[in-house]
């Protein structure tokens, strides 16, 4: 019984390769997490366990997919970045997105009990959706990352104030919302400080900055590398010899994957970690 | 701190809506399942626990996404079908694919211990990738389904014979492969019967036919509905009044989701279940 | 001097094949034709020479691209339809669109002096843009065609009344526009008749119905063919033997390409010309 | 008679915007120009009239679409480049391609008699197809342009030698082809010189280099601009104030559009004409 009669249906599969030589960002988002966070009693405005679980799942994704150079997470979303020369899965969008979403979900569910030790998961289970976006230049990519971190800041300042008004100020949700209508950042800082003696600057970095995950090497002196120029000259999808690729792979496998809560908007973060943009592994720190 | 300076990066998101009025099939596949099945000692040629787990995860997907009208699974793959008038997530490919992949993965990991009671999951965890394909006509859709079921048959007959030669005939993998080179279906049936007294027809239906999942209503007499004509006349993405949609939704929620191992190539399966193509719920069977 | 160093740039060409088994409509539109028609003194509301030139160019397109089964034109736009099994240029959108636009433009410019005998073309020259759209079912395709013909009717009734108010009624454009604000079809018919003794039904068919171009064969009795069912069963892009294709090609070459001004909304037009949907040539009329 | 019943068909139009912040190249090619050039007796290996006509049509395209910054033509093909910040037609691929193809064709047909004074066009008329490709970086774009010019060189050296063997050496096509099999550039130069006393270097530049069309301003000293860095920092599709855009538009309108036959592979061409990449008009030369 040959299958040839029906095989024509494969012709309907349409190609979805992403434009070469562009930075690929896959962003995933929790589906219905407002409801989900209520069901499991997430602390407000931030639940440290939930963020740590997100970070653990993201770190596992980076570990299983070494082509990812950096990831940034906030709340129930995570962005994963592939360097522009990456050719994983021939850059097919659905393959890249579905693999990341599936791997992330697997770890989120699997690791749940390590972070929420007292409440087992029950249906409907947590799930995530995702999409891929191409950014042609380093500036575009960095602006994307900045956009997410600014969003983190705006939302966290709002939520911190909103929940202070409720938890410490005795307001209900409607009153808190009303109080914050039309306020600027400075106003919210002021409310926090004057009413509740909270200095927003002293809030945990993970809440204020979100989480950035990357392979860690020795920091370099700013100004000693011109990564931008070097990277923009890279024209072709793959430019490496196989032996170089093999060496890089080993170096990457050795590098620790770290989770930090740093400012990724300013140049300093990128200047001192040229490997994030160049895709060339840095120096493994000597053990001491 | 406004976010407007960076928000331009949203312009790089490119639309990926699937063509209206076409059947959408999302097929997911296990990533690296050869290695995975070895790690967890899956029985060969078929592991009943593994198939039951796949089916349980797929049933959960159908339960959480009522827009799916039918699903078909074999081995480590599953195909989910959305009726051509479906407008879920505005038919955005990445959203449809990632949601299905994520939900499936979540249940697969979560339900693992119910089916593999003695071996807990450990990293690297199982994951799946997926893609969406549009089929313009009922004939195309049915040919797609037939393609998968014929594939199931071809692979299962081969694997059953291959593993019989090894497990019962004492061959190693190379010898078994060599024995089967160039053989036709009839030859494999003959090998099974003459050497091992196995009548392939008596093998379990779940292995021979795969699994089909759908909402179950009362079967209709073949020939009383002309679904094809009716469905092809449906031209617009949405044609229902809201109240009708609401009624249908309730009916669907009441219908049991069943897992069967039937021939989905022949007309009979479709003729007796017009709701699978028409997207109009059938009659809920009376309790007896 | 090998070219291999630069050839990698070909990788950036992204595929744009249109979904198989769908009707492809390429619609072209005149660019800036309001200005253009003023420059060459087109008669208002309709310029017969301009429409005849559009039709002549469209007929030439159909003659050079026999895969087109029907075309419909109104004002400065034309729609060309490829049967759903068509595989011309591997269904690449840019190739289909650019070829039609280019061929149409070539004939429009070349034939200009045959229709506008007294005014030669001068820069800026007339040009057209185009796009391709896929329609999965016959109903969708016919609704597309109906949409264009209804548009023709609506615009022509409006324009006929508008210009009557100006040319015969002595109004200026603003007054005419004001008079027609909020009027229905019946009102416009009434204005034409009561004020100017114009019976809209007696207006030339080419103005009221637009122009439809197709290969002509002997009409069939309505009800003797069930083209819809037959066509919907066609599942694969190509189903013909080469010899059959060759025969069909010859028959098509013999069939006269006609320009008519018929109602293409009602079933009758399609029922009597089954070849338009089936892509099977009809009977060449016997000469008498 | 409202058109709403059919208007749903507009939903089937799928978006085709090109990725922002990438260089857009629209390349058009003559359809069936081997046959066409025979029909009109084009001189071999190059017909100066035919090339001049191509250049005249391309110049007209650039004049009507000021968003095009540079164009490069060889034989029956032409490439038109839009700067990466260009937002013409919202970057819709089909609109960009069809407009260029149509405008080019219109001028090609219209200007035919100015270049081929003795042979009027007759059906089938010349036509062109086209496609759009995105290049993310300056390096990619320049490599694309280099690819076309190297192709021009390779083909022209081959054709010059091939036709010398036929026209001067008395060979037939098969013999000439056979003679050139496996030869390198140096061999062909040698054949031309030793057999026919032709120094390939002295061939006309238009044949050897192809034609490049651009707006001309005062050349700048190489090294005084770092256009690459400046351009790569441009992140957003539009960055100009309206008044600046207006000024630039006027400057562009004043700049002469020139047709040259220069080396566009080396840096010098681009270094001295920074406006080609930066999209900022240069200095209009003072009249003397």
Automatic annotation (TrEMBL), chains A, B, C, D:
Question: Which residues bind Mg(2+) 1 per the record?
Answer: 29-30, 76
Cofactor(s) for this protein? Mg(2+)
Question: Which reactions are catalysed by this chain?
Answer: a 5'-end ribonucleotide-tRNA(His) + GTP + ATP + H2O = a 5'-end phospho-guanosine-ribonucleotide-tRNA(His) + AMP + 2 diphosphate + H(+)
What superkingdom does the record give?
Answer: Eukaryota
Say which enzyme class the record assigns: transferase
Which Pfam families does its entry note? Thg1, Thg1C
For this UniProt record, give its keywords in alphabetical order, as a comma-separated list. Answer: GTP-binding, Magnesium, Metal-binding, Nucleotide-binding, Nucleotidyltransferase, Transferase, tRNA processing
| Known EC number | 2.7.7.79
UniProt record similarity statement: Belongs to the tRNA(His) guanylyltransferase family.
* UniProt cofactor note: Binds 2 magnesium ions per subunit.
What job does this protein perform? Adds a GMP to the 5'-end of tRNA(His) after transcription and RNase P cleavage.
Binding residue positions for Mg(2+) 2: 29, 76
Query: Is Nucleotidyltransferase included in the keywords of this UniProt record?
Result: yes
Report the record's Gene Ontology biological process terms. Answer: tRNA modification
Every Thg1 C-terminal domain range: 139-266
Domain tRNAHis guanylyltransferase catalytic residues, every copy: 6-136
Q: What is this protein called?
A: tRNA(His) guanylyltransferase
Organism in which the protein naturally occurs: Echria macrotheca
Q: Which GO terms describe its molecular function?
A: GTP binding; magnesium ion binding; tRNA guanylyltransferase activity
Annotated binding of GTP, by residue? 75-76
